[in-house]
Amino acid sequence: MGLENNSVNVEQSYSDQARGTIIGQTPNAGEEVVPGETTIVFSVSAGTEQVEVPDVEGDSEAEAEESLTDAGFEVETEEEFDDTVEEGNVIRTDPSGGSTEDRGSTVNMVVSQGEEEEEPEPETERFTVNVEASFKDEEDNEDDENEDDSASQTITVWLTDMNHDDEQYEQIVLDSDDENETIEVPVTVEEGEEATITVQRDDEEEVSRDVDAAETLQVP
């Protein structure tokens, strides 16, 4: 039986169905009706309701969240530092205020943590340690007529401080004509801490000392 003898009404309502889709009817399909005496009502989807996003920039987090949820949105919040927006107030939203979005969609809200505080630099001590080294007669016989005039020794200084991690700082070569050589080692440490200076002659460690002030290390 057709609908030509019955009146038909169409009602629209918001839904997640595509606009124009029939989402319901009264009477239901299959029910018997009296021709000419029954009104058929179709419920047609008007699509998802569009809602304007409230402008909440500068509002407190609580006020902004209330405004957005009252307008029908879900809210997700994140924080970031900002030196122009008071701590606890909204910096921006995405989508931004004034735009039109689906009811029930999510608005991302960024809240200020205030101005980021810079970590203070540690107090440091800076001083110089002088490392004095001279040629060492390994046979302890300076009068030996057979002494090799071309003999040499390598002095290597290793440093551990705020700027060095057991790194080679300097290396010099001494020969039998060198009476004394001084290596200046600038040292930087946090206040109350120590640095470590290690001195090698060739491959043998001669001195290793923790230092916290200017001094002179004698290499035997």
Automatic annotation (TrEMBL):
* The name this protein goes by in its record: Serine/threonine-protein kinase
Q: Which InterPro entries match?
A: PASTA_dom
Q: Which residues form the PASTA domain?
A: 47-113
* The organism's place on the tree of life at top rank: Bacteria
| Lineage, broadest ranks | Bacteria, Bacillati, Bacillota, Bacilli, Lactobacillales
Where do the segments described as Disordered lie? Answer: 1-32, 45-153, 200-220
Which top EC class is given?
Answer: transferase
Polar residues: which segments have biased composition?
1-28
Acidic residues: bias regions: 52-86, 137-150
What SMART domains would the database entry show?
A: PASTA (SM00740)
The GO molecular function terms of this record are:
protein serine/threonine kinase activity
Q: What is its EC number?
A: 2.7.11.1
Gene3D superfamilies found in the cross-reference section: 2.60.40.2560, 3.30.10.20
User: Which keywords does this chain's UniProt record carry?
Assistant: Kinase, Transferase
